[in-house]
Amino acid sequence: MEQQFTSAQVVKLTGITPRQLQWWDERGVVVPRRDGRRRIYSADDITEVAVICALRRKGFPLQRVRRIIKFLQKEFGRRLAEAVNSGSEYHLLTDGKRIYLEDSDRRVIDVLKNSRQPLLGLCLNDAVREVHAEIFNRRPAQSHSNRGPRRRKSS
Residue 83: what are its φ and ψ, rounded to 5°? Predict the structure, then answer.
């Protein structure tokens, strides 16, 4: 059974505010499934929230983030989490107008060398790894998986 997360758990895992999460649902940015009035998020939903949060922390307005997420979904042909977990390292580069998605260090360097404007770079896999580390270090109380004992972060 797939892990499920409440809005409160998503807030705790990603650092987003409850209002932002609600607003993103209302605007169709990340749409969880519903159980009555409760929003229930999958691990894939949390992955998308984590990537969006990473972009927002770098100063991207939500309208531009939406364009980036749509571009990524179109480019991958599937959900962002599925593509990023496929094994390749994906790097997102943008100058605010153009978006580049590269899966090799050499291509990233080529884009940087040939750019006429400053570029913002984000390793999608790193954003996903961060949130997955949080998920598996703070397993939700409602999860009944048999993955062994909880791990604690070392100080």
Answer: -70, -45
pLDDT one-digit tens code per residue, 28-86: 888 899 999 999 999 888 888 888 888 888 888 888 888 887 887 787 777 777 777 66
| Token couple for 82 | 């599925």
Residue 40: its pLDDT value, please? 95
pTM for the full model?
0.69
Domains of the chain: 4-137 (1.10.1660.10)
Q: How far is the C-alpha of 1 from the C-alpha of 12, rounded, in Å?
A: 22
For 62-139, strand residue ranges (E) read 91-94, 99-102, 120-123
Question: What phi-psi label fits residue 59: left (phi over 0), alpha (psi between -120 and 50 degrees) or beta?
Answer: left
Pairing of strands 4-6, 38-42: antiparallel
If DSSP codes are grouped into helix, strand and coil, which group holds residue 62?
helix
Residue 141: what pLDDT? 39
Q: Which two tokens stand for residue 116?
A: 């006429």
Rounded to whole angstroms, how far apart are CA atoms 32 and 17?
A: 16
